[in-house]
Records
---
Amino acid sequence: MATEPGTSPTLRWPELVWSGDVGPLECVGVRDESHDVKTFLLKSVEPAIFRYDPGQFITLTCEIGGVSVSRCYTLSSTPTRPDRAAITAKRHPGGVVSRHLHETLKPGSRLDATGPSGAFSLVRSTARKVALFAGGSGITPMMSMSRYIDDLALDLDVVFVQSARTPADLLFRRELDAMAARRAGFEVRYACDRPDVERTWAGITGYLSLDLLGRVLPDLLEREVYCCGPAPYMGNVRAILSELAFDMARYHEESFQIEEPPSTPPQMESATDDVPYFAIEFANAGKTIRAKSTDTILTAARAAGIPLPSSCKRGLCGTCKTLKLSGDVEMNHLGGIRKSDIDKGFILACCSRPLSDLKLR
Ligand code: FES
């Protein structure tokens, strides 16, 4: 950019705040976090800063094999450093998008994204004592919150419990240990199901249990609890809290799981059911189903055994975005799709109901 005579170039942050409508993101760095986890550092291609709550996510859309696929990734970075954002992704063996990111995303690569979105963040709470439970990849929102607390030197009493299969699967250990060393009121506990590979393992061994948490987190009932991880992990934490008669109004969880369709048979039409039905053709799957006008397309597809990716099921994350080739829908989304995508014919299957026969890609 040319500089006016008599002035020097500035390194001021741009005034524009990034959202999906501002334009794509560019990868500016890749860091190995473990044997199967990488952090991707991102900037806005248009000069813009990032503004989000620690714990929020963005939705990436990638072209993979000629098909556009969307997935949510919580930002692992902190909004206190607004010029860059980061996602941390584990390479899942069957994960189409995570494999694509690990294999192709390099400095200079561009990514289509929407967001930031989501309500999972401690910024909405006034609690002074907090417990963060992270299982596996569920560590990303907890890292964002911890970095935020650390950068702003917030006066919070935090206990961070990270669970992983083995010590080699623990993430950000050095950074968390450094935070715990320099901050009064920030403690970290590590729990591994199989710590045997590390002979000097001094952390917790085995799954979290009532007895174990009673020993390592005796004041759990006094804390606001944030939990993120695989469904069984969060179910276990919830079960422990319920045994403790914990006030679940102070429990918050987040999970992005790409769900497989259940093996339940398709719903049959009832003779007394006077709700209109429409035909929905899934062109790629080569299947046509009948769906009630009151059912979302996602519900109808899953009931018929057609796999559609989904996550939030509330029109928020964009994971279920699909192209409508013909027909009309009623879509009530919560910001998970851009106007420009709607104009191109995309819909969110989780919050769209048929108003006519439909053909989807
Ligand atoms: S599943 Fe999140 S927008 Fe549809």
---
Amino acid sequence: MFHCDRCGECCRNLDKSELYKALDRGDGVCKYLKGNLCSIYENRPIMCRVDKCYELFFKSYMTREEYYDKNYEACKWLKEKRRSKKCHYH
Ligand code: SF4
Ligand code: SF4
């Protein structure tokens, strides 16, 4: 199972992909993000569902482990970006 620590960073960087344009409130943050959590979690779109996306779009290209690793890399990059932004301002 994919491990998410609910930092909310992926939902604050929607401007990195055209796919999430409809969810972007205008500054890259999702209009459904409340604090660090998704306020429509049970009904969130398919592109917000890691396992569902694997089944539908990535299964024939890579193993689940490889897919998770790519997602973890993206999480790590977003967290580091957040940290460096904080350092820049404080
Ligand atoms: S960036 Fe990764 S760890 Fe943070 S909320 Fe998104 S999926 Fe979870
Ligand atoms: S719908 Fe929910 S999971 Fe998807 S980007 Fe918005 S806050 Fe995040």
---
Amino acid sequence: MKPESIRVIQEEHGTIAAIAKSLGMMIERGPRDDLPGYFEVVGAMLFYIDEFPERLHHPKETELLFPKVAQRVPEIAKLIGQLDKEHTRGEFAIGDLQYLLKAWELLGPTRREAFEVAAKHHLQFYMEHIRLEETEIIPAAMRVLDAGDWEEVDAAFASNVDPLNGKYPRDPIYDRLFTRIVMRAPAPIGLG
Ligand SMILES: [Fe+2]
Ligand SMILES: [Fe+2]
């Protein structure tokens, strides 16, 4: 049976990938005739990525799961080091994207391309990050961690406290925000 911590990580990857995909589609499609709607929806998507994966998902990986895997599989420690760095880099990159979107909104279309190029680049980087975790780290973890390890990691996932918001476990506020974004995004990206 799949450990609870892995189930949580994979479920979160699914949510992140769904938002990333919608964001990519929004950027591909462009604002069309609804610029305010575009800024609102794209801004909410970026906020979601900043708030949920950057602050809740990555810390669980970097602090709770990765160190155990690196300890048991020295060959993978280098890749884990890279992914940890990407967690830090991602946090800054998402802040930059929020800034670039604001610049377009407030300064006009001359700032559009900078946002679009940076956003596409970041989405690519992000999906590759998740792919490496899914294809390299999770299989390695499943191979080398024993029942005792999983008990420890699962317990930490369930109870460890994040100083930022008081918990690691997923809060329903994120699901509500996710639903709001999907409702507001234009069809066929969302239901709006
Ligand atoms: Fe990650
Ligand atoms: Fe991840």
